[in-house]
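Chain X:
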Amino acid sequence: MSQRAVEQFIGRLITDSDFRRRAAKNIALVCEEEGYKLSNAEIRILASLDYERLARTEEFWLDDGIKRFTVGSGKVL
């Protein structure tokens, strides 16, 4: 996988709470469902991230204008 794709994946982890919750439960399945072609080493590294810290980053540091809004999140689409 290219560095750009890894960066896109991490960016989505930060800005998309639904994606982050799904990835925290089963990152390999999420990669398959979403079309991310990660190596086993990349999956292992990304699985070891602190997902609670990523959630706090979204909650406290990101403006709502750059977050992904999902149905059922309580946020306006």
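Chain Y:
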Amino acid sequence: MKTNRRTFMEKLAAVGAAIGLVSWPISSAAENQESKMLVHQVYFWLKDPQDQVAHQSLKAGLKKLLTVSTIESGHIGVPASTEARDVVDNSYSFSYNVRFKNMEDHDSYQGDPIHLEFIETCATLWDKVQVYDYNLV
């Protein structure tokens, strides 16, 4: 059977689509950035990690912070007692992870009165805060 260029290209496109190499429609990076779910990951280091009152106060503040209406989902954590390895940093006191539908919801969260109150009332408790924001792919 003789194969012409058009038949070859059609078969190549079909195989590429079947194994995920071709994705239609192709959108711009800016469009993808706006539509993707955003994760806001925050680590807190208490000034005095042994201070149980500070520990409970920050935990309560984080729980209240989870009530901001633009948050899709979220949770609070403390370091796990996993095996010590060079790549594991368990020096933080709390981990706070929330997801937003999009950048707009994240930006609204930043100015939400509950978030602003959290910063005002709890900032004296921590020595360091590290934030990692990323879009899900």
